Amino acid sequence: MNDVVFPKPVFHGDTLRAITKVLSKREAKSRPNAGIVEFEHQALNQRDEIVSKCRRIALMHKRPA
């Protein structure tokens, strides 16, 4: 994970929800059955304020053809 930020505080009793967006994807050079995907994760409180945000890169298995 990188670019981790917490722009607003979280308080006891807050209701949180998460949103994940796929920012990019590409073939893995060394593994033909996998790809590299970049995600952006956001956590929002009950007022739809972003309380946490980060980017993550993951190696994912591809679907069988």
Describe the structure.
The protein is an all-beta fold. The chain has one domain: Thiol Ester Dehydrase, Chain A (Roll). 0% of the residues lie in helices and 58% in strands. It has no helices and 4 strands. It has a 4-stranded antiparallel β-sheet, with no helix packed on it. A hairpin with a 5-residue loop joins β3 and β4. The radius of gyration is 15 Å and the shape is elongated. It starts with a strand and ends with a strand. The mean pLDDT is 96.
Strand order, largest beta sheet = 1-4-3-2
**First CA to last CA: what distance?**
30 Å
Mean pLDDT: 96
What is the molecular shape? elongated
Give Rg in angstroms: 15 Å
Query: What proportion of the residues is helical, as a percent range?
Result: under 10%
Query: pLDDT under 50 segments (min length 5)?
Result: none
- Just name the CATH architecture: Roll
> What are the secondary-structure elements, in order, as H or E?
EEEE
Number of strands: 4
Contiguous helical run count? 0
Q: Considering the protein shown, what is the CATH homologous superfamily?
A: Hotdog Thioesterase
User: CATH top level?
Assistant: Alpha Beta
Briefly note the CATH topology name. Answer: Thiol Ester Dehydrase, Chain A
What structural category do the secondary elements indicate?
mainly beta
* Domains (count): 1
Q: How would you characterize the largest beta sheet? A: 4 strands, antiparallel
Strand-residue proportion: over 45%
